[in-house]
């Protein structure tokens, strides 16, 4: 924010400094105090704005980017949107290689932000020249003055959170935070935030959130790659089928897995109870917090910060669609007939 005038120079000035909001209802039966760091308040509606601006400005400092350069990444998700946003303001071209599973709505959104989108076949191996990884690598090789963000294997991903999200949480809680609960995909958020907070107070506990079908929890516990852990699941953005070097497993204390179904219902409940309209992984983070509470992780002095990665508007065709919920079988079970609120 520009000093004194109250006017921002451009939209990028508004990245970060997201609010910390107390949960009042959804955690009312738990012992402890619970707050959400709601990253949907970023201008690109997710915490990925932080890594986009950090990585791009670092590349500028290193002289890798000049006006008119090209930024390349492989994602149809939040990171793609954030890179496109930063590219517009800074005058870079943005190329996103996405796989053909990405919805038309997502591709339109990226195009609306000026990105050139390459749609690559989803069902080919990662090393196939048509895969979105290989297409991105080739475009990077062939395009002069281009930078490949490569968020899963880029150390600057965690650095972005070490320098912004972590200090914000520390300051907003006056240094009283005792636990963080965070989803892990690339691992950038949880690793960067945790490293910063543990440097301030080593007693702070970092509680990770993983999906059934993902390798992260098992790898954290055993440091072995057990491919039996890997199978398809619905939650997007959390969990992984490979080990990203952007994740620092040493600063994560424990992982908890959540189901697709519980996370989806919990996101809907968060909207209905707290008025927080968030994404699927935010539901996963709240669900994991409830599971951690049940396992006795918190006491009455606990100040627990849940990092909610993004805004709910990107999930209208998924968790906020009754048809989609029904198609997944998430409205079907006897148990839910009593728990599910009517959304019609
Ligand atoms: N939630 C959503 C919606 C995401 O897009 C991501 C990023 N893959 C995450 C959670 C996980 O964050 P990180 O990549 O920083 O681990």
From TrEMBL:
- Cofactor requirements of the protein: pyridoxal 5'-phosphate
Q: Decide whether keyword Transferase is in the record.
A: no
Which species? Lutibacter profundi
Domain Tryptophan synthase beta chain-like PALP spans what residues? 12-310
Q: What is this protein called?
A: Cystathionine beta-synthase
Q: Does the keyword Protease apply?
A: no
Q: Which family does it belong to?
A: Belongs to the cysteine synthase/cystathionine beta-synthase family.
PROSITE patterns xref list: CYS_SYNTHASE (PS00901)
- Any one biological process term the GO annotation gives: cysteine biosynthetic process from serine
Q: Which GO terms describe its molecular function?
A: transferase activity, transferring alkyl or aryl (other than methyl) groups
Gene3D superfamilies, from UniProt?
3.40.50.1100
Q: Which UniProt keywords apply?
A: Pyridoxal phosphate
């Amino acid at each position: 924010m520009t000093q004194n005038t109250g006017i921002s120079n451009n939209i990028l000035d508004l990245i970060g400094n997201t609010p910390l909001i107390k949960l009042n209802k959804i955690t009312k039966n738990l012992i402890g105090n619970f707050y959400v760091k709601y990253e949907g308040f970023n201008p690109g509606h997710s915490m990925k704005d932080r890594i986009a601006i950090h990585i791009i400005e670092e590349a500028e400092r290193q002289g890798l980017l000049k006006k008119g350069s090209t930024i390349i990444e492989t994602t149809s998700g939040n990171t793609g949107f954030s890179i496109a946003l930063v590219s517009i303001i800074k005058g870079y071209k943005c190329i996103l290689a996405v796989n053909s599973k990405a919805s038309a709505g997502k591709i339109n959104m990226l195009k609306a932000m000026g990105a050139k989108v390459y749609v690559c076949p989803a069902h080919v191996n990662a090393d196939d020249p048509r895969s979105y990884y290989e297409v991105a690598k080739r475009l990077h090789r062939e395009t002069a003055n281009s930078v490949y963000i490569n968020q899963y294997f880029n150390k600057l991903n965690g650095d972005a959170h070490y320098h912004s999200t972590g200090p914000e949480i520390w300051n907003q809680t006056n240094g009283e935070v005792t636990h963080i609960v965070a989803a892990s995909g690339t691992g950038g958020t949880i690793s960067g935030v945790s490293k910063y907070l543990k440097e301030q107070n080593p007693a702070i506990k970092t509680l990770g959130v993983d999906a059934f079908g993902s390798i992260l929890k098992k790898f954290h516990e055993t440091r072995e790659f057990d491919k039996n852990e890997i199978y398809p699941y619905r939650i997007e953005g959390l969990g992984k089928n490979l080990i990203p070097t952007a994740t620092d497993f040493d600063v994560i204390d424990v992982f908890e897995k959540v189901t697709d179904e519980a996370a989806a219902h919990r996101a809907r409940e968060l909207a209905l109870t707290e008025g927080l309209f968030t994404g699927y992984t935010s539901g996963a983070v709240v669900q994991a917090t409830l599971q951690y509470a049940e396992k006795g992780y918190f006491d009455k002095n606990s100040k627990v910060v849940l990092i909610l990665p993004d805004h709910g508007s990107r999930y209208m065709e998924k968790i906020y669609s009754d048809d989609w919920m029904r198609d997944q079988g998430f409205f079907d079970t006897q148990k839910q007939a009593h728990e599910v609120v009517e959304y019609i």
